[in-house]
Amino acid sequence: MAEPKKKGSMLVKLLKLFVLVVLLCVAAFVGVGLFVLDGKYEVERSIVINADSDDVHKQVGDLRQWPNWLPFTKHEPTIVVKVDKPTGAGAHQTWTGQDGKGELTFTASDEDKGIEYDMVFDDKWKSKGKLLYEKSGDGTKVTWHMTGQNDDFVGKYFAALMPNMVGPMFEEGLADLKKKVEEKK
């Protein structure tokens, strides 16, 4: 009489299944990062400030005033900012902090239209941004807009998260800018 075939233990089967699921998850993560995510991002938020554009520009167009309303420096106390040129096209600042380093340069500055800038974070992640002014009733609508392209693997995942990471910071910054400008009127 033949002995019955021994069945593998249930624990070994579960372990094999677990390893297979983990490998499939890793493959999916890598596949999405390489072939699905394009690395592009765009973030935009707006607020209406009860002031003229020239009053808004006194805060936005002068890098020395940015600590009054910029949320990034408020939430990261280790940041050290150096302003090389505070105003006008070519205005430039650099910063360092525990989360990295970066630089920002105004490419355009107009008290009626707003500012545009180029920004580089950790010498590799570049973005273009602008804070634009538009007449809105008796006030000024300020729109903060930023776009970028991250081509490396990790950067593509960061790009997918940018609207959720940076959007709330833009909202906070615009609210602080509104408060600062309106209290100075």
Word description of this protein:
The chain is of the alpha+beta class. The chain has a single domain (39-184), classed as START domain (Alpha-D-Glucose-1,6-Bisphosphate, Chain A, domain 4, 2-Layer Sandwich). It is 39% helix and 35% strand. The protein has four helices and seven strands. Strands 1-7-6-5-4-3-2 form a seven-stranded antiparallel beta sheet, covered by helices on one side. Helix 2 crosses helix 4 (153-184). The longest helix has 32 residues, at 153-184. The radius of gyration is 24 Å and the shape is elongated. The mean pLDDT is 88.
Query: How many H/I helices?
Result: 4
CATH topology: Alpha-D-Glucose-1,6-Bisphosphate, Chain A, domain 4
Please give the CATH class.
Alpha Beta
* Main structural class: alpha+beta
> How would you state the average pLDDT, rounded?
88
C-alpha Rg, in Å? 24 Å
- Percentage beta strand: 25-35%
The count of β-strands is 7
Which strands sit side by side, in order, in the main sheet? 1-7-6-5-4-3-2
The dominant shape is: elongated
- Major β-sheet, in short? 7 strands, antiparallel
**Topology order in helix (H) and strand (E) letters:** HEHHEEEEEEH
Under the CATH scheme, which architecture would be assigned? 2-Layer Sandwich
* N-to-C span: 100 Å
CATH superfamily: START domain
